[in-house]
Amino acid sequence: MLKKSFFSRQDPAVTLLMRGGSIEEIIANARRGEFEGADAIAVELCDLPPELRTTDNFRHIMHEVRLPFMFLLYRNDRWLKNDDDARQQYLLNTAEAGAELIDVMGDLFAPARRELAVDSQAIEKQKRLIGEIHARGAKVLMSSHMTDSLSAEEVLAHLREQSARGADVLKIVTGVNSEAELVEAIRTTMLLNRELDKPFLHLCNGSHARLHRFIGPKLGGTIVFAVCDYLSPGLVWTQPTIRAMKNVMQNIPWHPDDVR
């Protein structure tokens, strides 16, 4: 039986995005996602007490739910907040435990507008961290989040810079708050699919973003985040449910690479 993975798939991985304040809660939420039909699990560690963020605990979580895992730890960490250096050790623990994918913030070590560091020393630290994650057998997703609406060409340049730092998967979240911005977002995803040589996620938030959340993966995205419901804190209303997203994946038989 082939090991399940975020990669080497025909369709994007519908990935449960979740949190938990204990190991038991994380396992329970992940199991629920698995039974809802998720292809993978993404765990935000911001609510998990630091003393529980051990390699053994992470290994236990991934043993209990046999899906590929990625882990995230942003500046909304309830304990470490803006201490970028301290948070990374816990992500390294997840890589050591067998996580397939680790999220590295694009402005890690030097907060910046549009979440992409420009400080040369911070960029070198990011590259060293990515090397450490790779040495532990995991891949790196570099992410940038913003409320700005960017042109397709601006997004492409942004993700190429992420790629130059060694990321294996490229991710950006932008704002979409008008019909014109929605049309540009669709053009953006199709441009990225043509021009990038690495897997990518192009996600949108805002008043006009929800349609793109559903069709973006059909335009070339590699991973799509979804939820079981909207009861958990920190969830974005534009994110589809797992069941709704799986229906889209199964019932829209189209991908830009199939166009003759």
Give the H and E element order. EHEHEHEHEHEHEHEH
* Cα distance spanning the termini: 34 Å
Structural class: alpha/beta
- Estimate the helix proportion, in percent: 25-40%
Concise description?
By secondary structure, the chain is α/β, with parallel strands linked by helices. The chain has eight helices and eight strands, in the order E-H-E-H-E-H-E-H-E-H-E-H-E-H-E-H. It starts with 12 loop residues before the first strand and ends in a 9-residue tail after the last helix.
Helices, strands, pairings?
Elements: E1 13-18, H1 23-36, E2 40-44, H2 55-64, E3 69-72, H3 84-97, E4 101-105, H4 120-135, E5 139-145, H5 152-164, E6 169-175, H6 179-195, E7 200-205, H7 210-215, E8 223-226, H8 242-251
Parallel strand pairs: 1-2, 1-8, 2-3, 3-4, 4-5, 5-6, 6-7
Note down, in words, how this protein is organized.
With 260 residues, the protein is α/β, with parallel strands linked by helices. The protein has 8 helices and 8 strands. It has an 8-stranded parallel sheet with strand order 7-6-5-4-3-2-1-8. Helix 1 packs parallel to helix 2, helix 2 crosses helix 3 and helix 5 packs across helix 6. The longest helix has 17 residues. The mean pLDDT is 94.
Task: Summarize this structure as a short list of keywords or feature phrases.
single chain; 260 residues; alpha/beta; eight-stranded parallel β-sheet; 8 helices; 8 strands; 17% strand; globular
